[in-house]
Design brief:
The structure is a single chain. Helix content is about 30%, strand content about 30%. With about 230 residues, it is α/β, with parallel strands linked by helices. The protein has two domains: about 160 residues, Rossmann fold (3-Layer(aba) Sandwich), CATH 3.40.50.300; about 60 residues, no CATH class. The chain is globular and about 50 Å long.
């Protein structure tokens, strides 16, 4: 059994009398500790897929499993606990609380986790040991994204979901963030899923899932993923 399993997943949104099929027959697997890049054009269904895996949306048909548990069978309360304990989220625009310091933002994980990591230690690990007392407005975009990653990691999640995590960053800062995510998977055994439209990022992945028109066009296991520092795009 793989760590993540999507089996014939279908998602239909109903808007009045109109049905929109966002995903159909989506089947793929991801192993524990891998960096998986899910790539495809805008509107292909990538974010819908991520929302289902993250417990923020439900599927219409099919099965989704994480670490042996069937996510697609959870009720609303169980999905809340799943998001709280099992999944860390990193978004394009950071989603930090502006009137809390970097340290206080990461410490939010203490309030919703069973066994959180020490917030100061996690901030040191992401290179922000000297910026703990700064507010988000006093941090660069890359530093804010590092705080968001630290906050997600402090929960000790089984899974880290990243939706276009470098979309608001410049090229060099974006590479630093991707390198941090790659090292997180390598060093901590956290499974990292990165949603992107940039096919160049597939070179850093252990596994690549290409989404096209709401389904998996191709899945590839990369036996020799490149360090982010060596990738150009």
């Amino acid at each position: 059994m793989s760590f993540i399993e999507f089996e014939k997943v279908k998602k239909v949104y109903t808007m009045g009398e109109v049905e929109i099929e966002a995903l159909h027959d989506v089947t793929f697997t991801v192993e524990k500790g891998e960096v998986c890049v899910i790539v495809g054009p805008s509107g292909a269904g990538k974010t819908t897929l991520l929302n289902i895996l993250g417990g923020m949306d439900t599927l219409t048909d099919g099965t989704v499993r994480l670490d042996g548990g069937e996510v697609s069978a959870l009720n609303r309360r169980q999905l809340t606990n799943y998001r709280r304990y099992d999944v860390g989220f990193v978004f394009q625009f950071y989603n930090l609380v502006q009137n809390l310091t970097a340290l206080e933002n990461v410490e939010l994980a203490n309030q919703i986790s069973r066994n959180p990591l020490d917030a100061r230690e996690v901030l040191r690990e992401v290179g922000l040991g000297a910026r703990m007392a700064n507010f988000p407005a006093q941090l660069s975009g890359g530093e804010q994204q590092r705080v968001a990653i630290a906050r997600a990691l402090a929960k000790r999640p089984k899974l880290l979901l990243c939706d276009e995590p470098t979309g608001a960053l410049d090229y060099n800062t974006g590479k630093q963030i991707l390198s941090l995510l790659q090292n997180t998977a390598r060093g901590n055994g956290v499974t990292v899923i990165i949603i992107t439209h940039n096919s160049a990022l597939t070179a850093m992945a252990d596994r690549v899932v290409t989404i096209k028109n709401g389904t998996v066009g191709h899945m590839k296991v990369n036996k020799a993923p490149q360090p982010v520092e060596e990738i150009e795009w």
